[in-house]
Amino acid sequence: MTARTRHILAVSAAVAVIVVGLVLVVVWGRSDGGRASDEEVATTSTTTTTLPVWPLTGLPDRNAGVQPHPAISVKMDNSADARPQSGLNEADVVFELLVEGITRFALVFHSDLPDPVGPVRSARSSDPQMVHQLSRPLFAWSGGNAGVTAEIFAAARAGILTDASYNAASASYFRSDQRSAPHNLYVRLPQLLREQAPAGQGDPAPLFVYRPVQGPEASPTTTSSTPTTSIGVTTTTAPGSAAPIAGFTLRMDGTTSDWAWDEGLRGWRRFQVDGLHPRAESATVDGTGRQVAPAIVVVMFIDYGTSPADPRSPMAITVGSGPLLVFSEGSVVSGTWTRPEAERPAVLTDATGREIRLTAGRTWVQYPRKGSELTLLDRSGADALLVHKR
Predict the structure, then answer these.
(1) Which residue, 169, 196, 223, sits at the end of a domain?
(2) Is the peptide bond before 119 cis (omega within 30 degrees of 0)?
(3) 141 and 18, same structural domain?
(4) Cα angle for residues 210, 214, 215 (degrees, 5° grid)
(5) Most Cβ neighbours (<10 Å): which of 10, 233, 252, 300?
(6) What is the CA radius of gyration of the chain?
(7) What number of other Cβ atoms are within 10 A of residue 256's Cβ?
(8) What burial class does residue 271 get, using C-beta atoms within 10 Å of its C-beta: 0-12 exposed, 13-18 middle, 19+ buried?
(9) Does 245 fall in a domain?
């Protein structure tokens, strides 16, 4: 981290550690991840896309909206034995939340339907509330204790989701002979959609508000140099600039993920060290060996309760409000997420109360406990990770 960056961030030369709710979160002084607002872009660009966009990525595509269909949410294992997982790079959104001591993924597919996806694992009490915002998705899962199974069936009867489990659509699933149980169950999404989608159901509503994708002539700038305060830390941005964040580390109970911004790729490369993956092999890759690197990482600090179906299992409370960090375009914005109703997605606002608009692209959403530790990485720390990129 350069002396100029340290001055901009107003933090010490030591590695910055953020415990949201206890220590201050850094904000760049912009509500849009370091890029210009829609109004600012409009003054510098005359080229905008006219193509329809996918609701869960904001990316333009002439096929978007042509054949409306529901989203598919797939519960996926994140244990050391489950890696590498298939489908991670094709998901529009990945939710990462706590289970018993580690994390588990809920992948959301809509613009792409890869074949196959897995390993597919069991549901949790957290899932109905979390997926309610997805406009009644197909919910792909396998197994669960009697209490959780009853919760998923009740959510299906209430119209929150469509049960697309192994038991409900076994023809769309298969066991791989290349993996050991329980990490060998995979689902074929195109077949699952044909077999389980309710007749006439349309596309999901967007989860986030995106900035319009601009044409090649766009040259966003900013004229603001007003200091912005977020929970006590003041940062000043010079006109046309934004202080960068090279990467960060987030600990979610027994799972620690590292993220490094790759400017050439325009994405946040993910790394995860565990019992089978030392640092040199820590890159989170999919079944093809390609590393996960979403355009946006949204960290929403939430409360966890206890599952009524299993006292050992944490239950994510994704309705309410809490601290927020949005990592996009090599920078970060701090703010608040607010979701008063389960059927609607969270509204993301910055420290000034302005709505945060995301860069169009695939998004990774992490749900750590409130008070979890997040460490900002300087350039040398991020480069040490990128040595091991895949």
Answers:
(1) 196
(2) yes
(3) no
(4) 160
(5) 300
(6) 21
(7) 17
(8) buried
(9) yes
295 and 166 in one domain? no
Half-sphere exposure of 375 (CA within 13 A, CB side): 13
Mode of pairing for the β-strands spanning 314-317 and 363-367: unpaired
Q: How many domains does the chain have?
A: 2
Question: For residue 387, what are its two tokens?
Answer: 């040595």
DSSP string, 351-366: TTSPBPPBPSS-EEEE
Q: Is residue 202 part of a domain?
A: no
pLDDT tens digit at each of 390 positions of the chain:
443 333 333 333 333 444 443 333 333 333 343 343 443 333 333 445 478 999 999 999 999 999 999 999 999 999 999 999 999 999 999 999 999 999 999 999 999 999 999 999 999 999 999 999 999 999 999 988 999 999 999 999 999 999 999 999 999 999 999 999 999 999 999 999 999 999 999 999 999 999 888 654 332 222 222 222 222 222 222 222 235 799 999 999 999 999 999 999 999 999 999 999 999 999 999 999 999 999 999 999 999 999 999 999 999 999 999 999 999 999 999 999 999 999 999 999 998 899 999 999 999 999 999 999 999 999 999 999 999 999
Q: Tokens for 33?
A: 């991840």
**Residue 173 phi/psi, 5° resolution?**
-115, 155
Q: What is the DSSP letter of 375?
A: E
C-alpha to C-alpha distance for 159 and 173, rounded to whole angstroms: 23
Which residue, among 323, 319, 325, 357, has the nearest Cα to 339 in the 3D structure?
A: 319
Structure tokens at 353: 């109360």
User: Considering all CA atoms of the chain, what is the largest pairwise distance in Å, rounded to the nearest integer?
Assistant: 59
Please give the structure tokens belonging to residue 4. 């100029």
Report the C-alpha gap between 153 and 151 in whole angstroms: 5
